[in-house]
Write a structure and sequence with these properties.
globular, tt1808, chain A, 27% helix, five-stranded antiparallel β-sheet, single chain, alpha+beta, 214 residues, six-stranded mixed β-sheet
Length: 214
């Protein structure tokens, strides 16, 4: 029988925790957009792994010891598709984690998950509240120092608070409830598929207007 090119699921470490990806459209699009733009941004890096809602098992032989960040980025591991992420096999903790608030998750994000990520050594932990309902600030970045998370400073640009992620080398800001990633090296925002399609439609409309004037 021909061997499947896809990895088999390990029954001891299942790929699902039975929880939904998101509870509402704001949370869903925030997660999907962040994963999409970061995956494209790092697509030329074979040593950068981007994923979302993927179970991380952090104690071998203890399948209950797991967590599924909404968005995660790991530097120094192969860029390939995974069923789950086992720390003892990968040998590397995620460097960047983003959690998006919802009614049933925000308390876990602020409390137990924050503590766990610090213990695991996640270098940057970000909290996003696109509806501005749960956290004291809609966007916060925390950096790990001496085993504890400390807030990343923000600067104000165009009336908006902008944070620099040293891990990603990108600036993050919230704009009309949408998380935006900005590349200071190019001076441009990273585009989602929807924003890119909207920009193409806008340019096509302008071209039609120009053609009609000829």
């Amino acid at each position: 029988m021909e061997k499947s090119p896809f990895p088999a699921e390990d029954p001891l470490y299942p790929s699902s925790d039975g929880q939904p990806l998101a509870e509402n459209d704001w949370q869903l699009h925030a997660i999907l957009d962040a994963v999409a733009v970061l995956d494209v941004h790092f697509e030329e890096r074979p040593d950068v792994y981007v994923s979302g809602d993927l179970l991380i098992y952090y104690e071998e032989g203890e399948p209950r010891q797991c967590v599924a960040p909404d968005v995660l980025v790991v530097f120094g591991v192969p860029r390939r598709r995974r069923m789950v992420y086992k720390l003892w096999e990968e040998g590397k903790t995620p460097d960047f984690v983003l959690e998006v608030a919802s009614e049933n998750t925000w308390r876990q994000d602020e409390g137990p998950k924050r503590t766990l990520y610090a213990e695991l050594g996640v270098r940057e932990f970000w909290l996003l509240d696109p509806r501005e309902e749960y956290f004291e600030a809609p966007l916060r970045g925390l950096t790990l120092a001496d085993g504890r998370y400390r807030p990343l400073p923000a600067k104000v640009e165009g009336g908006r608070r902008v944070f620099r992620s040293q891990v990603l080398g990108l600036d993050l800001r919230l704009e009309d409830g949408r998380l935006c990633f900005h590349d200071p090296a190019t001076g441009k925002d990273l585009r989602t598929l929807r924003s890119a399609e909207a920009r193409i439609a806008e340019l096509e409309s302008r071209l039609r207007e120009v053609d009609s004037l000829r």
